[in-house]
């Protein structure tokens, strides 16, 4: 094989490898979020991603995936088809601390009547956190909404807890970050699609 043919083969192999790798739409604090993911056989697009901070500490990176990108809270909550919430821990967190913060954020953004209606699912979801000791730095917690199954959680790719059937409950989870009392007000706008901002080059968030 000539030197030219070897070079062509090497270039072709590099292009093939690159085409098989996921395209990353965002990188926040070193955590990469793929531009698209597949849930229940549907391709979902990254709607937005950012970092949850508490005081000066980075707690976790978070991203929302929808079938079609939405720029308002109302449109996100009304989105059709499967959805995904992806959380990547940026520090060690006990299951008690993470679970309590999760439940507080949910309760802060759901009215009393809806809280009563969703109580069995909220209780079951809270019990899920007792199934693992906590989140280590780098652990990934995913909550998928699959219309034919419900809300299913995965820790590092393994199912945890039972599916919760109501879309209203998945919306209640989303409201933790985009509700009227989000756990981190600076994170909320980053989870809503902004076409103008997305088309402009942005520095990596450190």
Structure overview:
By secondary structure, the protein is of the alpha+beta class. It has one domain: Chalcone isomerase. The protein is built from 6 helices and 11 strands. It has helices at 3-20, 73-77, 95-108, 112-128, 167-178, 195-199; strands at 24-28, 31-34, 36-39, 42-54, 57-66, 83-89, 93-94, 134-135, 140-146, 150-155, 158-164. It has a 7-stranded antiparallel sheet. Helix 3 (95-108) crosses helix 5 (167-178). The radius of gyration is 19 Å and the shape is globular. The termini are far apart. The relative contact order is 0.16.
CATH fold name:
Chalcone isomerase
Give the count of helical stretches. Answer: 6
Number of separate strands: 11
- For the record, the CATH architecture stands as 3-Layer(bba) Sandwich
What general outline do the C-alpha atoms trace? globular
Protein name: Lipoprotein transmembrane
Keywords: Lipoprotein, Membrane, Signal, Transmembrane
GO molecular function, one term: intramolecular lyase activity
Pfam families: Chalcone_3
